Amino acid sequence: MKKLPPGQKESDTFPRFGLPQYATRFPTDIDKITFTIGGDLQEFEISEELKSLSRTNQISDFHCVTTWSKLNLSWSGYSFNEFYNKLILPKVSGEISFVVLKAQDGYETSMLLTDLMQHNVLLADQLDHQPLTMEHGAPIRIVAPDHYGYKNLKHIKRIEFYSEEQILKQGLLSFMDHPRARDAYEERASTGPGIIFRWLYKFGINGTIKSFEKATAEYKARLKKTKTRK
Q1: Residue 167 in 3-state DSSP?
Q2: 133 phi, psi to nearest 5 deg
Q3: Which residues contact 146 (CB under 8 A, 6 or more apart)?
Q4: Which of 38, 52, 220, 221 is the most interior residue, by most CB within 10 Å?
């Protein structure tokens, strides 16, 4: 039996999940992979360039910070390491250490470049041998198995590379964003031991799943109605 990170429990399902306020926020385009590169680099777009990279397939686990884990997911996409070295590094003039990731639905997170450069981090566009669905990050997302799910950004819109750390989240809930969020070390929040937050977070799991399921059903109903009118 596979050993789970501290405080995690295996889930039978892989739900659309996130901060409650994002339940009703959706990507604007899930059919075409196009995202912008920026930060300390001159801005440019990535699209067809990804096809110059080697396709990578991997089986890995997804660990939500709220304590549920979905095991043995089959992802396919492009190694972030190769993506950076071949498509980004030639345009870099200084040292890069910090990366900001922005999604089409408005969500933002950040990671250290050293964490993104690990062998198992992907820019994934397929799950279970099929293109990503809206629920799981279409058209392309980050898969970083050694980090909690909130670092695995869905619906990539923009990736910014910086030489220094950027202050991304402020206010009362900023404590929820650990700079690394490694699941093996139970880095669930920026302050306090992870074991405390595993008990705090787990009480919101069922309610969050239901709110995302409801919002997703309404979203699909609207799409169906729009297509019918056409």
Answers
A1: coil
A2: -90, 170
A3: 115, 118, 120, 182, 183, 184
A4: 38
Its pTM stands at 0.94
The answer to whether 52 and 66 are in contact (CB under 8 A) is: no
Domain boundary assignment for the chain: 9-229
* Polymer length of the chain: 230
Fold adopted by 9-229 = Sulfite Oxidase; Chain A, domain 2 (3.90.420)
Q: Quickly count helices (H) and strands (E) in the chain.
A: 4, 11
Give the phi and the psi of residue 89 in degrees, each rounded to 5. -55, -40
Nearest to 161 by CA among 98, 114, 213, 111: 98
In order along its 230 residues, the chain shows pLDDT tens digits of 678 999 999 999 999 999 999 999 999 999 999 999 999 999 999 999 999 999 999 999 999 999 999 999 999 999 999 999 999 999 999 999 999 999 999 999 999 999 999 999 999 999 999 999 999 999 999 999 999 999 999 999 999 999 999 988 777 667 788 999 999 999 999 888 889 999 999 899 999 999 999 999 999 999 888 777 66
- Residue-wise over 135-152: b if at least 16 C-beta within 10 A, else e? bbbbbbbbbbbbbbbbbb
Helix (H, G, I), strand (E, B) or coil at 82: helix
CB 119 within 8 A of CB 81: yes
